[in-house]
Structure formats: C-alpha cells, structure tokens
Amino acid sequence: MAMTEPAIHLRGVSRRFGALQAVRDVNLAVMPGERRAVLGPNGAGKTTLFNTICGDFPPTSGTIALFGADITRLRPHRRTRLGIGRTYQTSLLFNGLTLLENLFVAVRGLRPNRFSFLRPGRGDDGMAKARELADRMRLSHLLDAEVMNLSHGQRRQLEVGMALAGDPRVLMLDEPAAGLSPGDRPELLNLIRGLPRTLTLILIEHDMDIALPAADVVTVMKDGEVVVEAPPNRIADDPVVQSIYLGGVH
Amino acid sequence: MRSAAATWSLLGVLALLALPWLLAQVLPAGQAQFWTANILGRAIVFGIIAMSLTFLATYGGFVSLAQMMIAGVAGYVLAIFVDGAVPRIVGGLGYSLAVPLGLVAATAMGLLVGAISVRTRDIYLLMITLALAMGVFRFVETNIAWFNGYEGIRNVVGPAMPGFDVRDPMVFYHVALGTAALLYFGVLYLVRSPFGLVLQGIRDNPRRVAALGYSVALHRIAAFGVAGFIAGCGGTLSTIYNIGISPGTIGLGATVNVLIMSVIGGLGHPVGAFIGSLIFTVFDTFAATIYDRDRFNTLIGLVFLVIVLVSPDGAIGIGARLRRLLAAGRR
User: Distance between the two ends of chain B, CA-based, in angstroms?
Assistant: First the structure.
C-alpha cells in the first residue's frame, strides 16, 4: 500500500453548540481522488461536520488536516485558498448579479488583486476562467442571465461552478441535488461524475439512490457519530443502516 | 441591453445640455433663466447628493442619512479656506486648491462614517448615520471659531475667469451638469468593476463574500468613501449656488429631503436620484403658488405619498411599469 497522505484527515473531531453535541469524536480519512458520501438522517451532524472542515464552525476539539497540513484553526477563506471548495445546502448566490459575474467574483476572491476599482479588460484571465467554468458547468448559454432568474437546477450547477473557482483539491458538496426535480437530477449527477479524479470529493446526500452510485466509500452518521463506514455495495444491506433508514427514525 | 441603456443616458445628457437654449426659445428671458438656474441647476446639485445615497442603497444595501452632512463638510472646508469668504476663517487659497481640499475632506468623512458604522445594518445603520449627521450639525451650529455658528460663512461666489463666471446661470448649469454626468457614468463604470461586483455581493450575501476571501469591511468602507466623494461634489456646487453655507444646509430637514428625493426617484438605479430631485425641486418651488402659502408642505407630502403608494420603487418604477404595459399592448 502506498504511503499517501489522506486528503482530509479528521482525528477525534467534536463540535458542541452549548448543550448540544452536534458532532462527537469523528475520525475520518479520505484519500486523494476518493469519492466519499456522507449519509444520515436529518440532524445526524452531516452539515456541522462539513462546517468544521470548511471552517464556518471550527471544531471544539480534535484536529483536521488537509494533505497532512493542520488546518483546524484557519479562517474559512484561508482554507479556500489552500484548496477546499464547497457548495451550500441552500444556495448562497448573488441574486442581483449575472451568472458570469457570480463566477468572476468567486474566481477573483482568490487572486491578489481582488480589491480593484478597474473593470476587467478583454484579456482578463479571471474573466476567462469564469467563462471556462460556465462552460464546464454547461451554463455558457446563460452568461448574462441574472441569477435570480435561473431555474433551481441551474442554480445548483452554478453553485458547483463557484466551488470549483479556486481549483480546489477537495470539493465538498452539501446536498447538491436537494430540491431538484427528478428531471434535473441526472444532469447534475453526470456533472459530478464527470469531475476529474485529481479532485477529492466529499458529498452529503440524503437520497441513497444518488449517493451510492457516486461514491467509493460511504460514511453513515447518526446523532453526531459515525456509525458505519463501508463500500456502497455493502451499505444497503447493513443492519445498522437499515434500522436508521427503514426503522422509522427518518 | 446595458449598452443600450448607456446610449440612452448619453442622449439624455445631450438633451439636457441643449435644454437651457430650448427654454430660452419658448419662455420669456427671465423665466428661462429662472428655470435654468433655480429649477434645473438646483435639481442637478441635489441630485448629485441624492445619488451618493442611492449608490450606497442600490448597490450595497446601506441606507445612510449622513450624506447631506458629508456634502456640508466639502462646503464648509471650501468656505473656510477660500479667499473672499466672509467672515475670513483661514482663507488664503484660490478655488483651484480649496475645492479639491473640500473633496478630500468629504471623502475622508465618508470613509470615517463607513468605518464607524461598519458593523451595523438596516435600522441600526440608519440610526448611527443620522446620529453622526446630527452631531456634526449641532457642533457646526454652536462653533463660532471655525464655522461662524448659526450665521454660517457667506460670499463663496465661485471661480471667475474672463468668459467663465459661475454666477452666470448658463455657466453654472453646464458646470453642474458636466459634474453630474461624470459622476453618473463613473458610478455606472464602477459597479461593474471587481469593487462594484463585490459590493453587490455584500448586498446579496455577505457571508458568501467573506467565504470567498474578500474583506467585507474594506469594501464597505471604500463604498462610503466613494459616496463621500460624490456627496462632496454636490456640497461644493450647492455652496457656490447658495453663495455660502450655513448650518441649516445640513440640518435634519435637509437630511430628510435628500432621503425623500432618493426614495421618490427610486432606489434601483442612480438616475432615480436626479428624477427624484427634479420632482422635489419643482414642488418645493411651486407648491406655495399652486396651493396655499401656509400649507404648501401638505401638498408636497401628498405628492410624495401618492408616488410611493402607486410605485414603491419610485418614479423609475412607474417608468418601468408603463414600458411593460406598452410592450404588452403591442403584443
């Protein structure tokens, strides 16, 4: 076995909100290029776990390493610059700006000239990058559309595009298919499956039909703890998973 | 579509340039001059100050009540340092130095207001900017040594060269119009720059802006600095228009008037500030003649109430609605 460093390595990570222990002693190692799905019922601590990794709510105890480097205490945008991209469960887009401008703002935030009164010129590489991202997300036909006028599916695609703006090494998707109509789901799934293997992917998903085909390894959480970690083909039959998903807890 | 809007704006500026000449053709000489200076010129000057508020509100989501006070800072610094002002406080500078000094002071005051209010939003931002405005107003009103107290500073007549005297209504009108056009197009340029896009990002979603690696505070303070500069340009012109400045210029009434102009014109596009200031100036000037001398404020109030009730997004909202109706009728 190669001695590669995990892309994301959590050791004994806990997060507490007052009396509520949202995440309890989680150990997790996601290898580079891996597709990891995090499953679990509402309130299992999936999004809180995400927030500890992305820095929105740092852990109250434990450590987090990105390719071996400790990032436990870094601010969110520092982590973004180190290569963690994320999407949010509820779209956090800039509604008054166009699709291209949303991507441009995301790209520019990682560059040293991010504060500027000068409009980008024709050959601006940030703008070129934004167009390229739109192309990858199959949204090139909507560059000048205001984001408030996009469909829900298009907004989710744009979310993924903005998360990719910093050329992340680790991409974290928080319920990317949430609220999508059945017709819009395959498009997004294909998009996620088409992402290069140089990228490590961690995705939270509610729906097993989406999570299982996309994942190499599945982590199941309940009440803030990891209860199962197994390849997707063993998940559906796992007695613990069955009790969570079929036992009326949901 | 955006370039079409720019073309229309440019045509509008050209039409405004020719307007005093047109007025002179159709109105008696005295009337034409009155309209040029006291209605159009004044509307443009107040439009600039209102646009500084509209800029912050439209693109940043910040409603600042300090803009009239900031305009007054430019006016007072000009009056304090320029030669010929009565009483002489410091003096010694010509207009070519005193005006830029006033603009620097207004920009600095804008940055200061932005820095003080950087953590507040909505009603709290409104209150803190109002408190700053009233604090400066009371200080100026009671300070004799620097601001000559209640009397203010008179005789700021504006620059004059052979063939160019700002006391000539035509010259003043065109200087004001030129300044307004530069600032207006400057704002339109700025809002599509990285700074402007991030500012709108802060309006839509400050948490995401921070997560993307931008400093929200830096962009907010810079926006107040830009708005301070715009307000300062308006304050300089208004001081020259009024041949001086007194505390009443930056009092509560004036502060509220600027807000009213912005709202009735429409927060949504900088052009609303100028439309609002024109409507305001026309009614402010003629309400006493149209209605009753003692009750003209009632008429002004009713007009504003009707505009805001009919169209919550102001006069530019009425325009957009009419265009949609016409487009629907044609189909």
Answer: 20
